[in-house]
Amino acid sequence: MYSIPLVTAVLVTVSLVAGHGQVNRITSGSASNAGPNQYWAGDSANSKTATRVMYKASGPAYVLFDGFADNSQMSCEGSAKSPAPKTFTVAAGNEIDVYWEGATSELKGKSGTGSLAAYNPWVHAMGFVFDYISSCHGDCTTFDATNAGWTKIAHAGIDTGQTISNALRETMKNKPEEYFPTSGPGLWAMAKLVQNGSKWTIRVPKTLKSGQYIIRHELAAVHNPKTSDPSSGPQLYIACIQVDVTNGGDTSLPTGTQAKDLYRPDGAFANIDVTSLTASFFNVAIPGPAIWDSSSSLLSPRDSNAEASVANTSFNTTEKTARTKTKACKERRSTIKHAAAGRAHRSSLPCVHRKNRLA
Ligand SMILES: [Cu+2]
């Protein structure tokens, strides 16, 4: 048996080597279910969790653009074939709150993080949040999600009608992972998550048939624009949450899009440069398939590369501009290692950023 001092030692080690973050717990009403402890197999939470194991800090800590076309990475961060042991019961039409926990203490106790005191807040403030769902065609605890078809039920990019709090803007300036846009309106979904105590709310479609499903809840951090460095570009953090939907309606999910076809490895999303984009861009450019309206199963599945179907002219034009600017900036760009998490956790300091600093 483990003695208490040994357990304590293990936990301390975990907090030092941990990567970018994972699900702390999910809740719905008064029900709560803890996320897995991927660093210690002996944790009792692991036999009760409905959330599949996410990447550890060592090795890949998230999915990069070179993994976008790979179902095994994109479905559930390597857990496509490794189900969680439980499902979380939720009634159709109800909400699930997902609480993220940062693996490093960079934002612990910092202002603008929603007074989260019990554990580390999520550490990035620029990026999209996507929610997809797939049927488990039966029991989620034995379901191989590798080739699952995913249906998007929600997404959020940047809200130009809202502004990041001054507190979080200042906090991110010191991280250093300065927030863009550097002034004025433009609230990234990920900043909203951090401000809300690292919480994101997902509503299960009311019309959805009862049964077991996986919710593929994805954070896409865009603070490190793509360069020639293969570890740069958007970082996808994918939590697969197994739910048992009760009191459902009559509607089955559409076929959905396989995870490898959600975003193109060479597409506008992979090349997004958060330092160069205009406010008008953000109103339209949310990557991935359209949101299912949940009133019928007839949404036609995308043939392939769903991102291309959604991206409109504005998206592509902006992409070109962003690329040109990125090239011009490249030589003045410096990369800063901003956490103890190793090679994977880097933050770029583009020329725009530096100019703003000097001004
Ligand atoms: Cu990170």
From TrEMBL:
Q: Which cofactor(s) are needed, names only?
A: Cu(2+)
Q: State the top-level EC class.
A: oxidoreductase
Per the record, the GO terms for biological process are: cellulose catabolic process
What catalytic activity does the UniProt entry give for this protein? Answer: [(1->4)-beta-D-glucosyl]n+m + reduced acceptor + O2 = 4-dehydro-beta-D-glucosyl-[(1->4)-beta-D-glucosyl]n-1 + [(1->4)-beta-D-glucosyl]m + acceptor + H2O
The UniProt annotation puts the region (Disordered) at 337-359
Q: Name one Pfam family in it.
A: AA9
Q: Oxidoreductase: present as a keyword of the record?
A: yes
Enumerate the UniProt keywords alphabetically.
Answer: Carbohydrate metabolism, Cellulose degradation, Copper, Disulfide bond, Hydrolase, Metal-binding, Monooxygenase, Oxidoreductase, Polysaccharide degradation, Signal
Recorded E.C. number(s)? 1.14.99.56
Q: What GO molecular functions are on record for this protein?
A: hydrolase activity; metal ion binding; monooxygenase activity
Any signal peptide, and if so, which residues? 1-19
Give all residue intervals belonging to the Auxiliary Activity family 9 catalytic domain.
20-274
What is stated as this protein's family in its record?
A: Belongs to the polysaccharide monooxygenase AA9 family.
Specify the protein name: lytic cellulose monooxygenase (C4-dehydrogenating)
